[in-house]
Amino acid sequence: MEKKLFLLDAYALVFRAYYALIRSPRITSKNKNTNAQFGFTNTLVELLNKQKPTHMAVCFDTHEPTERHIDYAEYKANRQETPEDILIAVPDIKRIIKGFNIPCVETDGYEADDVIGTLAKKAAAEGYDVYMVTPDKDYGQLVSEKIKIYKPGYQGGDVEIMGPEEVCAKWNIKNVSQVIDVLGLMGDAVDNIPGIAGVGEKTAAKLLAEYETLENVVANAENIKGALGKKVVEGKDLAILSKKLATIIVDVPVEFHEEEFKVKEWNKDALKEIFGELEFRTLAKRLLGEEVEASTGATAPGDKKAGGKSLQIDLFGNVIGGEEEAPATPATVIPDDDVPSFTTLKKLSDVPHEYTAISGLDAVNQLVQQLSSFDEICFDTETTSIDANLAELVGMSFSVKAGEAYWVPCPADRTETDSILAAFRPLFEDESKTWIGQNLKYDLLVMKWYNVEFKESYSIPCWHIT
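Below the sequence we write its predicted structure tokens.
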């Protein structure tokens, strides 16, 4: 009998669920945002129904500091504060998970990555095929023939299952053990892991192609010519520390309990209670086959109306059980005043505008040429996550004139997206350009994961939303 264990990276999926639905929030009659609860539940059900795991567990971080915080006080120091809606959602999500009779696993002093890594290794040793459900790239270091990353799709894209071959191709390395060497050399801006200043993913891969490990790179620093050699000499201590910070611990004091992790019958009474509290009427009917009592006065979270039909939306904004698309939330444009007046907001249809979708490399190259003639460019990214370390590019938007903007979609296929970014690279690296955006720091971190670094950037509030 096949034994399949699915280990879920709880917070990565919770954040992704919350922000995937941020433009059409699910609000109960008691004014409670249930984006995270609803999206996570649909993801859990989809895994159970489609992947048919024999065993499952959901792993959480705790609030206790880890050894990484002791080694490096600035570890994750630049993380944004968790939204209150997510903090409120976590106890609900744990109740939902327990309602499905799935264990929640957490250990003080360790991150969910460490717990998953330990459980994955132990289960694989007992003959299980293990799938780590996460969009986090760092899990590549754990992959083997028995342990794989199960990366949820987005924008209607397919699920990506990554084994050793896929991980090595993604990082341009020979062995998955080199993932932590890459991270040690280049660092991780989101987790505030320093790495070596000025070394990116491509440079790290080239160094490892020659020297195989970070330790060998450091030992041969004097033999590396030019500015790169100087960077390695100056940053070798931080590189060694960074590799340790990026290494997932696989000897956490947690046990793989085969019977406890076994997928069982749901506790329908517990699910009915929490679904009623969250006003998941349609979801309860679909999963439990019965109505639940819910407060009146608000559309149930997860119920979207299109053409008079009730639609279910999953974690990535896709319609469940139908071909219709949920209507998009109308955009708003803030008036052209020194101080914005939020009492005079207009509908997009009332404001003159020309928004252009750019498709194909010819159109991309033409846009690059057009933007090159401007000194100041407004820039924004659309992504799948608030965490730049987990985010995938959905698209980029540019604007140089009020009422005019350009949208450049980025395909799920990384090779296609890299081709698009290569066309924009001369523009991004032009030191004469001033880049303007709202929360531009986040956008720059996302772009860094795509090997794009801006030479000059300014982040300022933008009252003209284009």
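The domain at 332-449 is CATH 3.30.420.10 (Nucleotidyltransferase; domain 5).
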